[in-house]
Design a protein that fits this description.
- This protein has helices at residues 4-21, 30-38, 53-71, 87-92, 108-117, 159-172, 185-192, 213-217, 219-222, 240-251; strands at 76-80, 101-106, 124-128, 146-150, 177-182, 226-231, 261-267.
- The protein is an alpha/beta fold.
- It has one domain: 3-Layer(aba) Sandwich (Rossmann fold).
- A 7-stranded mixed beta sheet has the order 3-2-1-4-5-7-6.
- Helix 4 links the parallel strand 1 (76-80) and strand 2 (101-106).
- The longest helix is centred in the N-terminal third of the chain and has 19 residues, at 53-71.
- The chain is globular.
- The termini are far apart.
């Protein structure tokens, strides 16, 4: 089965599926439920898994991808280190048409698992290699637009690797976009020290890479090919208190060092 960083794909899948099962679910994700029900795994290893964060993250990525596809209906979406995300299936049912193409880039064990568990589609291609092996870029159809997602990836890379990946995408996909998420620095440091343990049997892997919103904004001046950097607000969650707190931390600069980020890059 999966180990290390790859195992986080199971944890995020479980959290998303549990949210999708709720009668007041934030996310409609029947494929996530199907996957959890079909995988023989000791899910209790991950500890408490009924929370909103992974669904909110996926909703943010879905929304920005959907906006791009509305203007580029035949674009290629490149999902880097996709894990057990089910984004293609949600977007395919989201009213953006059925002309967009999908390219999954992930390590061989994850690609094998996706091929076994997910229904095939002629619009989906899978490449079994690291996202840091840039040869996957040669397989991307750039004729109709490119949207690159790195959901839950960059924080697990070394800083030079993460910035190198961003720079390579900016160079190869002019006119495209890239979206990624990062934890706040304090959270990444806690993971690096082994302090984040949702259960006695599971420890969150180290996260070498994190950036503040202000630092991310400077990428437009530092990385050739980046035309704009957008700090994407969190989608609404469930509960007035949650939404009030989210609204505050995203609009008051005092909290910038404490909050995670969703970042959208536009390539020129």
């Amino acid at each position: 089965m999966l180990t290390g960083v790859s195992e986080t794909a199971l944890m995020t899948l479980l959290v998303r599926a549990n949210e999708a099962r709720r009668p007041d679910a934030l996310i409609d994700d029947p494929m996530a439920i199907r996957l959890v029900d079909s995988i023989d795994f000791d899910w209790a290893k991950f500890g408490p898994s009924r929370r909103q964060d992974m669904a909110i993250r996926s909703l943010a990525f879905d929304e920005q991808t959907r906006r791009y596809l509305a203007d580029h209906p035949r674009a290629t979406v490149v999902a880097l280190a996709e894990g057990l995300q089910t984004s293609f299936h949600r977007l395919d049912a989201a009213g953006v048409g059925h002309e967009f193409r999908w390219l999954t880039v992930d390590l061989p064990p994850m690609i094998d698992l996706r091929r076994k568990l997910l229904p095939p589609s002629e619009r989906v291609r899978m490449v079994a290699q690291s996202a840091l092996d840039f040869s996957w870029m040669d397989k991307v159809d750039t004729d109709h637009g490119v949207f690159v997602t790195a959901e839950g990836l960059l924080m697990y890379l070394q800083p030079a690797e993460a910035l190198g990946l961003i720079a390579a995408c900016a160079q190869r996909f002019p006119g495209g976009r890239m979206m990624f998420d990062l934890p706040p620095t304090w959270f990444a440091k806690s993971a690096g020290r082994g302090l984040l343990r949702p259960s006695l049997r599971y420890r969150v892997p180290p996260m070498p890479f994190a950036m503040s919103p202000a630092r991310l904004a400077r990428l437009v001046d530092e990385v050739p090919g980046i035309r704009a950097v957008h700090d994407i607000p969190f989608p609404a969650g469930r509960g007035r208190l949650v939404n009030t707190m989210t609204w505050a931390v995203q609009r008051i600069r005092l909290f910038d060092s404490l909050r995670p980020t969703f970042t959208l890059l536009e390539f020129g």
